[in-house]
Structure formats: structure tokens, C-alpha cells
Write a structure and sequence with these properties.
The protein is an alpha/beta fold. It folds into two domains: 331 residues, TIM Barrel (Alpha-Beta Barrel), CATH 3.20.20; 126 residues, Cobalamin-binding domain (Rossmann fold). It contains 23 helices and 18 strands. α8 crosses α10 and α12 packs parallel to α13. The longest helix has 23 residues. The radius of gyration is 28 Å and the shape is globular. The protein starts with 7 loop residues before the first helix and ends in a 10-residue tail after the last helix.
Length: 605
């Protein structure tokens, strides 16, 4: 057998360069604008190109201070201390290596947690405090909880605590009084006096992400909060050079894997630049990532498992030191043992079976990730400079300047969700009307805070309100799909309409099709529905839409829609609404509820 020469394949298949690829792409585009067709823009204004070359200019950046896997953190959020201890013991036996003590006033409480620090000893019963890293999510009560922990440990220096105390963030979401720089410095000094190991100052970006902020706004705020705390601590007698080595950033991790990787990497870049600009020595930054609250849904909750798996992957690959997964049922209520087990095993699989931790900075050298990281770091630095120009984190938040910036992008984000440019699987896309909600230990009543600077949002909430109203009706709301022509003519639009209506909790009955308009109207009348959606081809619409609309309204339909875009001719045909891929689906489904006689609270008005 003739040995295969080393260059035989390249001789047969010559390597193609970017110019060759571009020539093929231009041919396929047939004159369409390259940038308009194939590039996109992030919410922070970065351009995403369709192709990136590998780069040798950016070395790998080992990020975790301790080599090896990140800390698998689990929430201790049961209101009862004894039950909380039991659940924590199961978590630690199941390979968790960190615990998050949640207080009722914590940013991530989500309706649960300890009321005060008085039962912390019972809450941590059986936990070897010198072997498990503890993070507090107790908001304004963090100094009190930290003092309680110092009181129950036998060796404070061997106990690693991350107080995660960011009074500016707590104030922004309505959980604390207006912060002051002097009080911030005194609080950091009191934490340092406890002698515990771990971090002292915190920038908590979850409030920004929860409120719809962009990655750059989240990172820019975190950096500003850390610098504010450094200055305050220095003024209180703690040298900034010592405190900077004990800094913590708490970041949200959502289902956008590449952006999530870039976020972790960019945070370390801007932290290093801030220390250098301040004349301080380089110091590592601890990053704790937590699965994003705003991506969590109450319907089709098992999709939350997929979202958090993507989030953990991004955080782990990006170099987070610790990761907390929100159990998939948290938006429904207090998660049970099964939901907690799934939360920790998502991380266990990615660490123990997928080995995501074994390579330092695995994204290093990727042209796309390096570009995304650099762009995000630059945008975040710009946000940080704006906050500094406004007087620092305290002044920028208290004055409303920074929250106003977040509110602007939140409005755009919610509009994109409503128009389904930001699809939510299981909610706005592919909803399951026959699902059964899983059990929780206790339900939670989710009430949107009012009058706060950075109100938390869940992207699925507008659709969930519609689903709730539909579920409260005596019978499942029903719409009739008035199909025109043969199956091939109407099937695609009928399936689209069925999916759209299901996002509002409305079931459908399909018509048989055909061109007999009276027969279609008779079927609609017999269905018992009060809303009809005409589904067919563009040609059939031009020929029959007006007459069919009249027939359907004579048959008792309170509203008639058409699956497709409005045209000048169709606008004159009496159709009440047009359902298409980029319509405002939340508003349209609200109109459907009104046509079907549903009130905002569910049931008949």
C-alpha cells in the first residue's frame, strides 16, 4: 500500500482563504448587503461578524485563583432552620462545595430565606465551616449574619466567608435604605474586624441584569461599586492595597453561552485595568456567577434546566470561581429535594463528566471570543466612566442617572420579547397547554416591586399573566382556525397561529379547509369559539379573505384575525388583526383575551 503523503490532501483540496469564502458568500447573497445580511449587533453595540480567524495574539488567561473546578454552590433558603440544615446536608453529600445563606432581605431571596441571623447556628448545623465556603445573600443584614457566623465558628481565620454586601445594589432594588459612603466604609471595617477569611467588598451585578440591563451595564456597575467600596474602606482606615485583594463580583449568567464566557473574562480585564489606573498592585478578583433570574419561567419549567446548563457552561468556561444554579422550580415556589438535586447535578455533570474545568481559559485564542471580550470590556469601561463622572456608584444610583440608563434598555428588551425577537422556549415559542406543574415545598406570591430604581423583571412574566388568566377560566379558551384551501396551502400558517395562541393559553380547533366559505363559517359557529383566525396562502387571501371575514362575523365571531402581514387590500377587508412573526404578540394576545371574554384576573369579566 502506498503511504499517504503528508500534503496529499492539501494538494487535492487546496486550502481556502477568507477571500475565497467571501467570494462564495457574495455569490449566494446575490447583491444583498453583506453587513446587513450576515452581521448583527449586541445590546451593547458590538458588531458580530459571521466569520472570525483564530488569533495568536491573546494568550490564555488563567483566572481562577485556585486551579481546578469552580465551587458548586447551593442555596440555603428554607425559612425553617431545621429543614434548611437537612437540605444543606443533602447538598453537601451530593458534592456541593459551597453554600449560599439566603436571607429574606437578600437580593436573590425570591420570596424565601432566613428572617434574621438568630437561627444561623441551627441553619448550619452539621456543616464543617472550615471545609465549606459560605456566601451570604442577606442584603442589608449581611454584617449581622457575618457577626453571627464568626460567633459560631471555632477558628475564624479558617472560615471562608463572602459577605456579598453591596448596600448600593440593595437600595436600588428597594431592599435597603439610601446608602452613604461613610456607612459603607464603616461596614467594610466591621467585616474585616471579624477576622474571617474570604472577601470583604462586593459589587453585585444581579440587580442590573435582573432589571434588564446589558452585560456592559452590569460589569460597569460592578466595577464602580467595588471602587466605591475601596475608597470608602481606605477612608475608614483600611488600606486599599489590602482590601483590593479581597474583592468579590457577583454576576448573573444567562443562556447566551458566548456572551457569558466573554462577560467573565471582561470583568477580570476591567478590574485589572482599574487597579493599574489606581496605582494598586494586581490582585485577583473572585467571581461568583448565579443563574439569571430574568430567564427563569413558571411554565414548562423543565426548559429552565436547559437554560441553567448553558449558563453554568458559560460561567465555568469563562473562569467563574463559584457558580450557583437556581433550581428549575424556583419561580413557582420553594424548590423540593429533587429540584435541588438537579441544580447541583447540572454542575456535577459539567465538572466530573464533561471536565469543563480542566483547561485554563479554553476560549483563549478564539477570534470571536477575544473580539467579544475586548468589545465588552471597552463598553463596560465606558459605563464605569459614566458612573464615575456622576460621582461614583452611590451618587449615580441615588440620583437615578444610572437606573434611567438601565430603564431605557429594559424597555427595548421587553419590547423584543413581546415581538418574539427574543424567543422564550416553552413560553412564547412551543408552549405546552397540557403540562402539569411540578410540586414545590411552598408556593410563593410574586409581587412586582413598585417605586424602586432597578425593579427586577422576568422576561416570561407577560406571557405567564395571559396563561394564568386563561387557566382561571371555567373552560379552556378556544379559537377557531378558518383554514382556506388544501393542507399544503394553510398548514404552515395554521401551526404558527396555534403556537401563538397557545402562548396566551388559548387552544385551537382546526377547520377542514377547502373553498366553501359558508361551510367554513358553519364549522366556526359549531366550534363554540368567539375568535377565528384565517389561515391560507397569499393568493387565497386576495380572493377570499374579505368574504370569509364577513361570513365568520355573521357566524358569531367576536373577532377575526388573519395569519399573515397586513396589505393595503387586506386592510379594507374588515379583518380585526394580523398575526405574523414580528407582531406585538403580548398586545395581540391581550386583544384575544378581550374577544374571548377573559378578564385580567382570569375567568369571565
Amino acid at each position: 500500500m502506498t503511504a499517504l503523503r503528508a500534503n496529499a490532501l492539501t494538494e487535492t483540496f487546496p486550502q481556502a482563504g477568507e477571500a475565497d469564502w467571501r467570494a462564495v458568500v457574495d455569490k449566494a447573497l446575490k447583491g444583498a448587503d453583506f453587513n446587513g445580511a450576515l452581521t448583527s449587533t449586541t445590546r451593547d453595540g458590538s458588531s458580530i461578524q459571521p466569520l472570525y480567524a483564530q488569533t495568536d495574539e491573546a494568550p490564555a488567561r488563567p483566572s481562577r485563583a485556585i486551579p481546578g473546578p469552580w465551587s458548586v454552590c447551593q442555596r440555603i433558603d428554607h425559612p425553617d432552620a431545621g429543614e434548611a440544615a437537612s437540605l444543606a446536608a443533602a447538598d453537601l453529600e451530593g458534592a456541593a462545595s459551597g453554600l449560599v445563606v439566603v436571607g429574606a432581605g437578600g437580593i436573590g431571596a425570591r420570596g424565601f430565606g432566613a428572617v434574621d441571623a438568630g437561627d444561623l447556628d441551627a441553619r448550619l448545623d452539621g456543616v464543617f465551616l472550615d471545609m465549606v465556603r459560605i456566601r451570604l445573600d442577606t442584603g442589608a443584614d449581611a454584617p449581622t449574619f457575618a457577626e453571627a457566623l464568626a460567633g459560631i465558628t471555632t477558628d475564624a481565620s479558617a472560615t471562608t466567608l463572602d459577605p456579598a454586601w453591596d448596600p448600593v445594589a440593595s437600595f436600588a432594588c428597594g431592599l435597603d435604605e439610601q446608602p452613604g459612603v461613610a456607612a459603607l466604609g464603616a461596614g467594610v471595617a466591621s467585616l474585616a474586624a471579624l477576622g474571617l477569611g474570604g472577601t470583604l467588598i462586593t459589587g453585585d451585578g444581579r440587580v442590573v441584569h435582573d432589571s434588564g440591563g446589558t452585560p456592559a451595564q452590569e460589569l460597569g456597575y460592578v466595577l464602580a461599586a467595588l471602587i466605591e467600596a475601596l475608597r470608602a474602606a481606605d477612608a475608614a482606615g483600611l488600606p486599599a492595597s489590602q482590601v483590593s485583594a479581597r474583592a468579590l463580583a457577583v454576576l448573573s449568567a444567562d443562556a447566551d453561552i458566548f456572551a457569558g464566557i466573554a462577560k467573565q473574562r471582561a470583568m477580570r480585564l476591567i478590574w485589572a485595568r482599574a487597579l493599574e489606573s489606581s496605582g494598586l498592585e494586581a490582585a485577583s478578583l473572585r467571581i461568583e456567577a448565579e443563574a439569571a433570574w430574568r430567564m427563569t419561567a413558571r411554565y414548562d419549567v423543565y426548559v429552565n434546566m436547559l437554560r441553567t446548563t448553558a449558563a453554568v457552561s458559560a460561567a465555568g468556561l469563562g473562569g467563574a470561581d463559584g457558580v450557583t444554579v437556581l433550581p428549575h422550580t424556583l419561580a413557582l415556589g420553594l424548590p423540593d429535594a429533587f429540584a435541588r438535586r438537579v441544580a447541583r447535578n447540572i454542575q456535577n455533570v459539567l465538572i466530573m463528566e464533561s471536565n469543563l474545568h480542566r483547561v485554563a481559559d479554553p476560549a483563549g485564542g478564539s477570534g470571536y471570543i477575544e473580539s467579544l471580550t475586548a468589545d465588552l470590556a471597552a463598553a463596560a469601561w465606558g459605563v464605569f466612566q459614566q458612573i464615575e463622572a456622576a460621582g461614583g456608584a452611590v451618587a449615580a444610583v441615588v440620583s437615578g442617572a444610572f437606573p434611567d440608563d438601565v430603564a431605557g434598555v429594559r424597555e427595548t428588551l421587553l419590547r423584543d420579547v413581546a415581538h418574539r425577537r427574543e424567543p422564550l422556549t416553552g413560553v412564547s415559542e412551543f408552549p405546552n397547554l397540557d403540562e402539569t406543574a411540578p410540586a414545590v415545598l411552598m408556593p410563593v406570591s410574586e409581587q412586582a416591586p413598585t417605586g424602586v430604581l432597578l425593579p427586577p423583571v422576568r422576561l416570561a412574566a407577560p406571557f405567564e399573566a395571559l396563561r394564568d388568566a386563561a387557566a382561571a377560566a371555567p373552560e379552556r379558551p378556544l379559537a377557531f382556525l378558518a383554514c382556506l384551501g388544501h393542507l399544503a396551502d394553510y398548514n404552515a400558517r395554521a401551526l404558527f397561529a396555534q403556537n401563538l395562541l397557545a402562548a396566551g393559553g388559548i387552544a385551537v380547533q382546526h377547520g377542514d379547509g377547502g373553498d366553501d366559505l359558508n361551510a367554513i363559517a358553519a364549522q366556526a359557529a359549531g366550534s363554540g369559539a368567539r375568535l377565528a383566525v384565517i389561515c391560507g396562502s397569499d393568493g387565497a387571501y386576495g380572493e377570499h379573505a374579505g368574504a370569509l371575514t364577513e361570513a365568520l362575523k355573521r357566524a358569531g365571531m367576536a373577532a377575526v384575525w388573519l395569519a399573515g402581514r397586513e396589505t393595503p387590500a387586506l386592510a379594507q377587508s374588515g379583518i380585526d388583526a394580523f398575526a405574523h412573526a414580528r407582531c406585538d404578540s403580548v398586545s395581540l394576545l391581550g386583544d384575544a383575551h378581550a374577544a374571548l371574554g377573559l378578564s385580567a384576573g382570569g375567568g369571565a369579566p
